[in-house]
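Notes, p. 3: input format for complexes.
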Amino acid sequence: MAGIELTGLSTVYPNGVRAVDDLDLSITDGEFFALLGPSGCGKTTLLRTIAGLEQSSSGTVLIDGADVTRLEAGRRQVAMVFQDYALFPHMTVAENIAYPLRVRRATKQARQEAAVRTSGGLGLGTLLERRPAQLSGGQQQRVALARAIAMEAEVLLLDEPLSNLDARLRLEARTFLKRLQRELGMTTVFVTHDQAEALALADRIAVMSEGRIRQVGSPKEVFQRPRDTFVANFIGSTPMNLLSAIVREGHLEVAGTRLPLPPGVQLTDDTAVTVGIRPEYLRVDGGGEGITGTVSIVENLGVTSLVTLECPDGALVGLTVPEQDEPAVGTTLTAAPEPGRLLLYDGETGVLLG
Ligand code: ADP
Ligand code: MG
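Output follows (354 residues plus magnesium ion):
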């Protein structure tokens, strides 16, 4: 089985774009690993560099302990599923799935067996004679997955595998992908720009921006303790509230209110910080000490509602508690951060303190 070890890896395109920039990353054998970041941050390039489809400019790629940096793509024990699936339109589903074996000159019988074996678990058993144009987006995606699995590679690379599916199908495919990865136990690197997808699927997540990695951690770590304000803003279905604050007499002065400093954090007076509060940890039921503002937007989420408050230093988003009546727009409310859930970031660098 195979782990992946990237050291000082850079990939620079001929036009000078440094798409992967001196990146270190260690992915464990059997791990379901997400590369998460905004469009253009270098996710696809990094995946293609691992696969050997792009040549790195410097640094090394180890797969299963072996240095494959200069090894051509076909010899890397890596299967990649492309964002657009890249199926061969003139081939049937069975031929598409068995294609990697044809390249390896497997017999017709071995190819047929592989197609039947891989397609069964993916619900493609009755579609083997169809062509890609006769399939739905979800079915095409499963054919691309089946083809990658038929390669029996050590590493599976998936570039935004769910992004071409509509919202409903995406949720189903997400659960399906998770189960499949558990069953196969293949080291899987999965690229997405969708933080919810990364949180739901991955054992660990690397958050990328501008060719570099900002943070690596479990979904829980990345969600609960984003290492800087970029990650804080990027992770979460509603972005984290980030407010400027000043330390005064061992307290935080923020949005016209005083809040206690988080336990264990010691800062001298007049230090400028950014306070991070997840909307999920900001109750707007009027209880507790907090920041007062005027309700401007209420969005019903079902059990709770998302409430936007206009406060002295900008807007603040919080949640009602279950059973609480929806507050009316224009009313004044106090939003109370859950004790112990405040995060403090350096006012200049945006790096997490404490
Ligand atoms: P992502 O997958 O995160 O959207 P990409 O890896 O596709 O990001 O792109 C990273 C950066 O590299 C972007 O600035 C993009 O414009 C640039 N880029 C991607 N492919 C090429 C290429 N073939 N030639 C030149 N620049 C490229
Ligand atoms: Mg991409």
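The first strand starts at residue 4 and ends at 12.
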